């Protein structure tokens, strides 16, 4: 989960794996795969950075990258 701030100042935690689209309109709009939408104060680049940190923490990135050793001759 990543923490984001709604426009009214409250913090909510969003499942980063469910974020499908991030739009700046100029506020940042998160659209989840469920169709639910959230307007947040953070910029899109900050949300993406939080998502990347979260995915690294749970090992998703490592699970999708092939090791150079496993690609041997």
UniProtKB/TrEMBL annotation:
UniProt keywords (A-Z) are: Cell projection, Cilium, Flagellum
Which Pfam families does this one have?
Answer: FlbD (PF06289)
**What is the name attached to this protein's record?**
Flagellar FlbD family protein
- The protein's organism comes out as Paenibacillus xanthanilyticus
User: Taxonomic lineage per UniProt?
Assistant: Bacteria, Bacillati, Bacillota, Bacilli, Bacillales
């Amino acid at each position: 989960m990543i923490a984001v701030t709604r426009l009214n100042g409250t913090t909510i935690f969003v499942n980063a794996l469910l974020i499908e689209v991030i739009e700046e309109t100029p506020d940042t709009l998160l659209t989840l795969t469920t169709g639910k939408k959230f307007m947040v104060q953070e910029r899109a680049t900050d949300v993406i950075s939080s998502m990347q940190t979260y995915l690294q923490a749970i090992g998703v990135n490592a699970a999708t990258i092939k090791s150079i050793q496993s690609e041997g001759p």
